[in-house]
Amino acid sequence: MSLLRRSLFLAALTVCGVAPADDAKKADDKKDPKSVPATKVTPAEKKKADAEDAKKKAEEEAKKQQAEAEKFMREYEAQLKKSQEEAEKAASHKLLKEVKLVGKGGNSLQTIGVDAAGRILALVAQPRGFSQSQKNVTSEIHVLDSDGKAAGVWTVKFHANAVNAGPDGTVYVAGDGKIARFDKDGKMIGEVADLPFIADMIKDSDKLKEKAEKQVKQQKDQFANMVKQYKDRVAKLEEKAKAAKDKGEELSKADATQLKQNQQILDSYKESEKYYDSMTVQSVIDGILGRVKVVNSVSANDKDLYLVCGESEGYGFGLWRMDVDLKNAKKIKSGISGCCGQMDVQCCGDDILVAENTKHRFARYDRDGKELAAGGKRGKETDPGCFGGCCNPMNVKACGGDVLTAESEGIIKKFGPTGEFKGIVGSVKISGGCKNVAVGSNADASRVYFCDQPGSRVLILAKKDEKK
Predict the structure, then answer these.
(1) Is the terminal CB of the chain with fewer CB neighbours within 10 Å at N or C?
(2) How far is CA 451 from the centre of its chain?
(3) Could you list the residue range(s) of the whole structural domain that residue 72 is in?
């Protein structure tokens, strides 16, 4: 067939509605997929497919979050290293020695104090929890000289949380609602005593019970109201979804997302329901007593002894003052805010220094709790007078007429008595995270001591210009 005749033949077929085999195939390929009968999916198969899809999305989201967390940690560690190195260059002191401390039964370094002779009093004990002391345990005070040489170990027959020394050399150790006193040679002065304000609280059982009943009702009511709010939200959205379905429509994407999120929140509350159902007045009383018995810091001058403990209501800290013979207890500050269970108060002559870590400053108060001065502000760790991290300074200490501050990142700074920044004292490499980083020095500050709690090490720094 000639080319002309073939063209005329194809044209005639097209006019008659007939297409060649190849063209017919192409036409079939271009058919709307909706015109092809879909395979019927059973409800069980759909449910399984949806579950697999949700699982896949959850795994992808978890991987994404893990990658973001790892990236954040890498950036944080790089920034921490950079800040430590910058601070180390500007510091007046450098690391001289580190002393690793290990106690009996796995006890480790928890905090340090310094006595009038410049000796380090290292408390080696069980970790201090947020709200409970351990029972039937012993603690130890490892005494080190200014160069870190061991000078003795004293035994404390309770779970100790804090240690310090007064100007006369008396050493005070407190924890689990108790306090013990030692002379400079480690001989106990008198017997282990219950802290009077905690003993009074325990004695007033009616008041304690009333407070616990109020707390149980308040917490259960708050939780029940939260659950009700989410149930109401779910019910309204489900009604909305039903109304849309009756109209042959679908719930909007935003409402569908809200419905799913609220249902997930309600599911997460199921475990909390068990907790609140099991809450009793006695369990709350035990929790209150456990919290107030933890002693965050102890400090003394010639006439006054100060202790910081958790409070019976809320999550703040209370500052108590009493005579050095453990009489005339009085709360002088309440509701002090501290991050991660950390709150340090130290004597400074007749006044006191408070490491207000959530405010990125320290403050000086008189013995009645009246503010006299403050120093520090939020900023980059190496900027003059600034405190970085989520909550710093963690610890504070009087140093002659000046003030030493310590940050979780291992940076030590010096401020004047009225809060003016004087410079960086030292920088040590420790792990990150909020923690006790107690700091101290000998009389002339030729030695500065730092508590590396996670590493169970006492770090000793010396002036850079000191001859070897």
Answers:
(1) C
(2) 18
(3) 39-90
Q: How does pLDDT run along the chain (468 residues), one tens digit per residue?
A: 444 344 444 444 443 444 444 444 444 545 555 555 556 778 888 888 888 888 888 888 888 889 888 888 888 788 878 888 899 999 999 999 999 999 988 899 999 999 999 999 999 999 987 667 788 899 999 999 999 999 999 999 999 999 999 999 999 999 999 999 999 999 999 999 999 999 998 888 898 899 889 989 999 999 999 999 999 999 999 999 999 889 889 889 999 999 999 999 999 898 888 889 999 999 888 888 988 999 999 999 999 999 999 998 878 999 999 999 999 999 999 999 988 889 999 999 999 999 999 999 999 999 999 999 999 999 988 899 999 988 999 999 999 889 999 999 999 999 999 999 999 999 999 987 889 999 999 999 999 999 999 999 999 999 998 665
Nearest CA among 437, 447, 373, 372 for reference residue 411 = 437
- Among 110, 68, 80, 85, smallest CA distance to 432 is for 80
Question: Does pTM surpass 0.70?
Answer: yes
Same domain for 315 and 432: yes
| d(C-alpha 431, C-alpha 434), whole Å | 10
22 and 166 fall within a common domain: no
What angle (nearest 5°) sits at the alpha carbon of residue 151, between those of residues 148 and 157?
Answer: 115
Residues 193 and 325 in one domain: yes
Same domain, 218 and 272: yes
